[in-house]
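Dear colleague,

Following up on Tuesday's group meeting, I ran the structure prediction for the two-component complex that the binding team flagged. I've pasted the input sequences exactly as they went in, so you can double-check that nothing got truncated or mislabelled along the way. The structure tokens for the whole assembly follow below. Feel free to forward this to whoever is handling the docking comparison.

Inputs:
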Amino acid sequence: MAQASVKENEVDIVIGAIHPDLTSFMNEWRSVFSRFHLIIVKDPDLKEELKIPDGFDVDVYTKSDIDRVVGSSSSISFSGYSCRYFGFLVSRKKYVISIDDDCVPAQDSTGNFVDAVAQHIFNLTTPATPFFFNTLYDPYRKGADFVRGYPFSLRSGVACALSCGLWLNLADYDAPTQALKPGERNARYVDAVLTIPTRAMMPMSGINIAFDREAVGPALFPALRLAAEGKFRWETIEDIWCGMCVKVVCDHLCLGVKSGLPYVWRKDRGDAVESLKKEWEGVKLMEHLVPFFQSVRLPRTATTAEDCVVEMAGTVKQQLGPTDPVFTRAAEAMVEWIRIWKAVGLGSPGK
Amino acid sequence: MAQASVKENEVDIVIGAIHPDLTSFMNEWRSVFSRFHLIIVKDPDLKEELKIPDGFDVDVYTKSDIDRVVGSSSSISFSGYSCRYFGFLVSRKKYVISIDDDCVPAQDSTGNFVDAVAQHIFNLTTPATPFFFNTLYDPYRKGADFVRGYPFSLRSGVACALSCGLWLNLADYDAPTQALKPGERNARYVDAVLTIPTRAMMPMSGINIAFDREAVGPALFPALRLAAEGKFRWETIEDIWCGMCVKVVCDHLCLGVKSGLPYVWRKDRGDAVESLKKEWEGVKLMEHLVPFFQSVRLPRTATTAEDCVVEMAGTVKQQLGPTDPVFTRAAEAMVEWIRIWKAVGLGSPGK
């Protein structure tokens, strides 16, 4: 991987603390995280004190910070995995990287530890190629290029706004699949990054992502909340909803989305069979969501991520609202998010 | 890789013989090729006798066979790399696999030789997922599945009609890139197969492909011929044109196209700098081609690959014809191909 020319003070690493004891998590990431400013947002449902080891440049936000900045009467909830979005809101950096607190550095196929942050920054600072698929994967990687037949006019690509990393060990399945294959682990390290083509939709997982906050920050929000949302990834789809919103925004603004490297290692936890007792609400909602996001188009007058989100919220309310009240609430949360985003952008985050 | 349940007599391996001495090529592939029926089509420009080692079930076709079946006055040329398409025409099998005669079996990342035929058959006989991108790559592979958020209604996928393999060592660059990076070799084995999303275009390379002949055979033809087309891959785009036609046909008929495994090992040959002295005709044409294929839509009345090709030929002539006579000739070749395909389908190939 070529070295990207990003200054360390242009990056925030945002961690949503779902678990109180971050000692082992932070120590395993120490050589990477200690070079950057960290934003840790404590899940407002978490009662215990956070344990954070020394030696990091870190700001911690808790429920009282959230209430102060956002107000407690908001239509947005920052509970559980959604707490990280508060970190996206108060960050002042160009790039944000966010990794789940049950993930540690992975090893590549030669046994070397992966610097996930460096790879995300590389993905975000090299162009994306959404308008034609390069069969040889990322053409900007050292030792790679565009394959024969790739139009020269498209070889400069477009700016990349979102980098979706992957995970080894515990695969990111939904509750039914995880329950059906409790012993299945992802052991295959696929050494590639690719641009998701324009107009193609994918399910973004929030486990391991990075984005250009200046370009698409307003489009990363916790809007879709399941009635029985839990503290395991397979009990949430807030990131999937958000990912499809960002993809639509990127397609509209001619920005790129990449998927693939870097990997992180997900530690085992949770009982998927127990999660199955909850309603399969997320699985059902996806059947409405995907056709919607595949067909939604934004007006030319929407020229910023803020504009796009507000436009999309209107369409969500109108087209999806009648099928399920969860979508009406999501639309309201999207409008509210943009209001808060603008307000926070004008003020000081207070840290 | 799971074993696909395809009988060996459902498969033809088609080799276009650009080089007269196939001894080393066939011997390196012996353990794979000896299980299948082979169709070798000798480049009609080749003067020397073919050398083919014993021990294979092979039918060889030469210029006289081509003249007999197609007629010498055809608007289609089977010279050079295009000779293989004659093999696609006379095959009677459901699946066709075609590999360039300068490629030998590759090794995977653990040093085992890759059975490219088995992988192609696996790709073609497991579903493709063009309507939503699975970030964990091929969900039908052993040890893999659909990622959280993937709609259950799309998990049965669609039939896969085309499998595009990749290559190690000599990367498949165009002449300018190859000349600029004469020493660059592709050493990275990416252990993945993915479905190219619907409506996304990619440059198919004919080096290492397989397809369902019953489904899309009529859409694999040599139509676009450069004025100075040579005997090196970087001097041709006949496969790129053909690949975009097949992709449009697959998208229209709701069939899938996969890219990735299997790899083959491409031996070094040729002088790219010498090729640069020829006009950059292919590179220029791609600038017209790509927007055309990205926007072309077929009528609902086109329900077979034959229908689709004839419809597309009309649009090529009308929309691209005025920009360059090479496109008018391509449109004529496409119509002619369908005429021949139907005629050959009714008769006997004579072997």
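The CA atoms of residues 202 and 244 of chain B lie 7 Å apart.

Cheers,
M.
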